[in-house]
User: Fold these one by one.
Assistant:
Number 1:
Amino acid sequence: MKYLLSYAPEVRDALEQGRPVVALESTIISHGMPFPENLDMAREVEEIVRQEGAVPATVALIGGRCKVGLSDEELELLATSPQAVKVSLRDMPVVLARKALGATTVAATATIAAAAGIDVFVTGGIGGVHRGAPGQPGQVWDVSADLTVLGRTSVTVVCAGAKSVLDIGATLEVLETLGVTVLGYRTDRFPGFYTRDTGYGVDARVDGPEEAAAVIRARKLTQLPGGVLVVNPVPEADALDAAEVERHIAEALEAMAAEGVTGKAVTPYLLAKMKQVTEGRSLAANLALIKHNARVGAQIAAALKRG
Ligand code: PSU
Ligand code: MN
């Protein structure tokens, strides 16, 4: 992996000098939100990371390289190009070999961030176990590689939980099986992206960046493979009502089944459909939570460097 990395000069300097760096994913730009909100979001998130004293490193595959830190032109390209491929782990070799434009998921971004020596990675919500796992009606087996990567990569991922379109109970069970440390950030509840509480709890709660950093340092000392998942709920003012979200999800899942959407298209489809059925409120929540995560992630990255 190391041979494939291309650093933005600012990111390289920060890493060499031991200053805090925060990795950011690009699938959320290319496939998670419509234009122009996606481009505004990508720029604002980078700005928030800077305000907190860290250097942003948005990750993407460009010209056969894993780019760690993008120029404004590259952000714009990802936000506008219909050619951008959603890149999970299995897609990396193909997109690299073809020198195509690749927007990296949590799985791919976390893997590249760790190879680059970046400790903290901020996203909106992680992928997980989709509803309808074996034993349930529908019998699909759609488990995001995001979980696999969290189980083997030494990185801290800051997110607003897992999207409530997923099977949250099953997602938490897989995280436990993989040995991922899940920390509630100023909460005892596992958040569901659009909502602050999925009905499931977290094993441990931290109430600030220093406390999170202490756990992350301890995890590193154990030399266990795998990472820490910091779950930071969507701000109260932007959260959607849980019962309403549940109704909208049912509607979105039904439409998805009718249209026969499967595989890697599922998450982008559901995000777009949720925007439609909530009349844009899911997008507003998504924007609010990613910015909040960027602030918290940058603060944790800074606290780690102070330690
Ligand atoms: N969260 C968002 N927007 C997104 C995603 C998550 O707010 O676009 C993306 C992430 O890149 C995540 C991916 O890794 O969805 C999960 O896709 P899948 O379920 O196909 O693994
Ligand atoms: Mn999937």
Number 2:
Amino acid sequence: MSSKILIIGACGQIGSELTFKLRSIYGDDNVVASDISYSNLDIVNSGLFEIVDAKDYASVKTCVEKFNIDTVYLMAAMLSATGEKYPMEAWDLNMTSLFHVLNLAKDNFIKKVFWPSSIAVFGPTTPKEYTPQYTIMEPTTVYGMTKQVGERWCEYYFNKYQVDVRSLRYPGIISWKTLPGGGTTDYAVEIYHEAIKNKSYECFLKDESELPMMFMDDAIKATVDIMQAKAEDIKIRSSYNLAAVSFTPEDITESIKKQIPEFEISYKPDYRQDIANSWPKSINDSYARQDWKWKHQFSLDDITEEMLSQLRKKYN
Ligand code: AKB
């Protein structure tokens, strides 16, 4: 069965790479990229593109009807660090956009929804090591609160209205094509850019701040896999824990130094340190591995090798 896909937030870090991947699988004519502005020309110029305001129901619905969309990937969100600066705006964007898409599915305009959750659903009272799927969840960031409550709504729409919504709790995502914006895990992308450009980096987290992370290719694979899985294999309709690697700024520095021995890091923790302190160090994703056979590929050294070789081409 052919799928007509809409990606909302296609100009962002994950949305942009997801757009290219979905076009390669389903064909350029079947994948519509959309965002609030023309902020990523690679995406705007690479195929079907529409301006869509995720907070405006009419704007989303018009695009869905225009292209006969059956599947929506809702990638627009305000992340953890920016969300602490603009709490009401984060709540509004993250919740309003989710309700619009869930309601379009409930009212049969679309058939299937992907919505990303995050490790930010966990908080300081959650067990930090190998955090289980089902555990204490008392997030202390607005972003984490929107993701936690969003998960409840996803499960509610599945149980009450049979909406086929699928979700992953992404860790920090590392990629070289598009920069992340406004997250606490962004340091793990910035550090590679600075390693190539300046051979030094001032980190906004402390050396021992361990967080769950993942290379973009693994994140995209997980997203495609969960959406392609048989509905009966998706046993969790809130959101699945998802993991690949966990490391500290010190670990990533060691990994970079294997290739750039003169690389130097210094530490100047800011308000994002409190956010990092509230999140797990590592995640138990055994349900994803069991239910729809999730498997990651990239280790920290694999990520470093790929990031540095791609960014060398970009900057040199
Ligand atoms: C953030 O740091 O806010 C995000 C996330 C872990 O969801 N990258």
